[in-house]
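Task 17 of the worksheet. Students: predict the tertiary structure of the chain below and write it out as structure tokens. Keep your answer in the requested format; marks are given for formatting as well as content.
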Amino acid sequence: MEEREYMTHINPISIADVILLLIIFFLLTSTYVMEPGIRVKLPVAKTAEVVSEKNIIISLTIDGKVFINNKEVSLEEFDIILGDLLKSSKNKVVIIRSDKRLPVSRLVRIMDLARSAGAEKFLIATRRFE
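Model answer:
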């Protein structure tokens, strides 16, 4: 009859391999949501909703920069670029992502420029309060 050898210890190298494979698996299967590189601290709201339509997004940063769909624009070319985008948009809705520290007068000025370019409705982007 054949004698069997019993394993009396666990090989630590194989455990390290399993842990490494698990880490790689979780890194590859995890989803990361990255927002565009525009740094804006959004205000908080309890009734924030997710908008899934493809809309025009105007971002206003605390240092005075204005972005239309993640592309920086100057105030001189703002109404021309926004007007062109609004002509091809069927709902004429503009989402404004304004830094919460930005003065309201700056936000109103941008909204006024957007309305003169053809925007009909405005949505203010917020973070959900939890």
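Marker's comment: The longest strand covers residues 93-98. The first helix runs from residue 12 to 29.
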